[in-house]
Structure formats: C-alpha cells, structure tokens
Specification:
The complex is a heterodimer.
Chain A (H helix, E strand, L loop, with lengths): L2 H22 L8 H12 L4 E3 L2 E4 L3 E4 L3 E7 L9 E8 L6 E7 L7 E6 L5 E9 L4 E12 L10
Parallel strand pairs in A: 1-9, 3-9
Antiparallel strand pairs in A: 2-4, 4-7, 5-6, 5-8, 8-9
Chain B lengths: L3 E4 L3 E2 L4 E8 L21 E8 L2 E8 L8 E7 L4 E9 L4 E10 L1
Parallel strand pairs in B: 2-8
Antiparallel strand pairs in B: 1-3, 3-6, 4-5, 4-7, 7-8
Classes of the chains: A alpha+beta, B mainly beta.
C-alpha cells in the first residue's frame, strides 16, 4: 500500500463518518416540493400561474425565524371588476407549507398588507395572488434564516 | 380575554387611503413545541381575522400556525365617510375577540 492509498482510505473513512452523522441527526418533518405542489393544487387547482405583478418585501437574511416581516403588494387597480381576490403565502420548507390566506373585501382600495411569519430555516417563500378574472400570479423569494423557528423551541418570540 | 392593539387614524380627509394596523396578543402555539418534560404542546392558534369599515369588509385572513406569535397585520382602507372600523378575531375554540375604533372623515 502506497502512502497515497493510505491517505485516500482515511479520507474515505472520514467522509463515511460524516455522511453517517448527517443521517443520525434527527430531522424535523419538513414540507417538500410535492407537499407544496399539493397545497397549491388544493387552493388553485391546476390553473397556470405567471410570474409578476407581486412585490414581496422580505429580509434576505433573518436572524430569527420566529418573526420574519413580510410585506406584499399586488399590482391591481382594485376596481369593482378588476381586483385581487386573495393572496396565499407558502413557505416551501416549513413543516406546514401554508402560512396564511388573505382576502381583500370590497372596501380594500389597495392590495397591500404586511405581517410576520415563522420560517423553520433557510428556504423560499412563494406568494400566489388570484385576480377576480381567475388569473394567477406568483412571486418567489429566498430568505436565509440563522436560527429557525423550530430550533428556538423554548423562546417564544 | 386576549389583549388587542389597533391603530386607526382619528381623522382623515375623504378619499384618503389610510393605513390600519392591528395586533392581538396570542401565543399562536404551532403544535411542534414540547414542554421541558417532553410532552407536546397542542396547537392553539387564532384562525380568522377580519376588518370592516362602515359595515363593508376590507380585509380577511385565514391564519395558520406558520404566522408569528402575536399576529400582526397592516393594510389599507379608503376613507369615504365617518364610521366605525371594526376588527374581529376568532380562535380555534370559537372564542371571538372584537375591537372597534371610530374614524372621522372631514
């Protein structure tokens, strides 16, 4: 056995150990793309969605996943015939993908709102808006989360 | 009784679009936490929020455990005439919390 082979073997062992430890760490249940797709289908069926018309303001980096501010505004005249019916927020890697459903009543002059959401870790946030004519618009944004909402279990905020 | 805080401007000019803010004190227990003994804490959330101005609905939210504790919303309404801006929350046990503020339109 040459020296190079020996080093190679050590590296293989090390890599194997690393892989094993990753498997051993208990992973909390996370939504995967299939679950996200199912949540979308539940709300909107298989209707096609286009990108655009939604402005989503999210911090690119959130220190705590417990309170991530999100502001959403949808381009719409909000007239009686042409308005936003509802907005659905989805977090792609939360244990439950669906975060909230917003509906704009007849008294809403502007399709804009802000709220705070929980994120279990670094992930994409998807917002889908349904217009009164039935068309669907989508926006997606990635948030880096330092400490996820599921990791700081004893701290409420 | 949960504590609520709402912010509605006292007065507004007719036609103005004004920002409304509402918050309710609630832990929004997401069902994934456990006590120090390891027993899971059951889900306990506010499920619905609605705001109406002068009897017309402005904004409605269906809340899920993915929203933060003490859920906060900010949104807009158009001042047309003086009237109450009323807020309504309902938790999963059916308990309703209401709050209202008069908006004077000049």
């Amino acid at each position: 056995m040459t020296k190079a082979d020996k080093i190679d073997g050590t590296r293989r062992l090390l890599l194997g150990g690393l892989a094993a430890s990753v498997v051993l760490v208990a992973m909390p249940v996370r939504a995967d793309d299939a679950l996200v797709a199912e949540a979308i289908r539940e709300h909107f069926g298989d209707a096609p969605r286009s990108d655009g018309r939604i402005t989503m303001l999210l911090p690119p980096l959130a220190e705590s996943g417990n309170t991530v501010p999100i502001q959403i505004s949808v381009e719409s005249p909000m007239s009686e015939t042409d308005r936003v019916k509802r907005v659905v927020i989805l977090a792609t890697r939360n244990p439950r993908a669906l975060v909230a459903t917003m509906e704009f009543g007849p008294g809403a002059p502007r399709a804009q709102f802000s709220t705070n959401m929980r994120l279990s870790g670094t992930q994409d946030v998807i917002t889908i808006a349904e217009m009164s004519d039935g068309s669907l618009w989508q926006a997606q944004s990635r948030v880096l989360v330092t400490v996820g909402a599921c990791d700081t279990l004893q701290i409420r905020y | 009784m949960p504590n609520t805080r709402i912010r509605v401007p006292k007065t507004a000019k007719a036609g103005d679009i004004i920002e409304i803010r509402a918050i309710i004190q609630h832990p929004m227990e997401n069902g994934f936490r456990t006590t120090s003994q390891g027993t899971p804490i059951p889900v306990d959330i506010v499920t619905d929020f609605a705001c109406s101005y002068d009897g017309v609905e402005v904004f409605r939210v269906r809340l899920e455990p993915g929203l933060s504790a003490n859920p906060y919303f900010s949104f807009y309404l158009k001042a047309t005439k003086s009237g109450p801006v009323s807020f309504w929350w309902q938790d999963q046990h059916g308990e309703v919390t209401e709050a209202s503020e008069e908006l004077e339109v000049t």
